[in-house]
Specification:
Blueprint: H1 12-47, E1 54-55, E2 73-76, E3 82-89, E4 92-94, E5 97-101, E6 106-112, E7 117-120, E8 127-130, E9 134-140, E10 146-151, E11 164-170, H2 172-181
Parallel strand pairs: 3-6, 5-11
Antiparallel strand pairs: 1-9, 2-3, 3-4, 6-9, 7-8, 10-11
Length: 189
């Protein structure tokens, strides 16, 4: 047996080297593509931020604008839609109890007066972080009348465990009757 390669056959080391080189090229190419995606995404978000980012000055929430205390709670808007405005602050939600009509599309607009809070309505798809300086907006619908707890699920300080509120979905006809006499609805009058 001779150690000389046969005509038309490559040496085993050459084959292994060629395969390793090809896989190295594939791995480097994949890394380059991923880095390019990250760079592109970063530049794109810098030039075109999300369209629904709304900011607000948390130091003047209770003084001016849509989150003054007399404007909090549930309201039927001029176009017939229903909007719920809530302010989270250490260690409470305002209003403490929210009335909403069942079977009606709702828009929640929530902000924080101080630190990051969690906004969660049990047995629903409502789950959001509420950050000071930003307005969290989300849409939902309660299918049937029910009562739901609304705890803060982001640690916000030493009184965090006592921060919760209630959401009461009531019959739509009952809600409409109450909305005819009051602009802002809450469980507590």
């Amino acid at each position: 047996m001779s150690n000389t390669p046969h005509p038309g056959h490559s040496d085993g080391a050459d084959v292994v080297e060629r395969i390793e080189r090809n896989w190295a090229i594939v791995a480097v190419g994949l890394i380059v593509v991923l880095v390019a995606m990250v760079v592109y995404t970063g530049l794109h978000w810098t030039m075109m931020p999300p369209s629904r980012v709304e900011t607000i000055d948390p130091t003047t929430l209770h003084v001016t604008g849509e989150f003054i205390e007399s404007n909090l709670g549930t309201a039927r808007e001029a176009d017939g839609s229903v909007t719920v405005r809530v302010v989270a602050q250490q260690y409470s939600f305002t209003p403490q109890c929210i009335l909403v009509p069942a079977g009606t599309p709702l828009t929640f607009r929530v902000t924080s007066a101080d630190v990051v809070h969690g906004f969660l309505v049990t047995d629903t798809n409502i789950n959001s972080m509420v950050e000071p300086g930003y307005i969290s907006t989300f849409k939902t619908k309660f299918d049937k009348p029910a009562e739901h707890l609304m705890p803060c699920h982001e640690y916000c300080g030493t009184g965090h465990e006592a921060m919760w509120a209630n959401v009461k979905a009531i019959d739509r006809a009952e809600f409409d009757k109450l909305a005819a006499t009051d602009r802002r609805l809450s469980c507590v009058k």
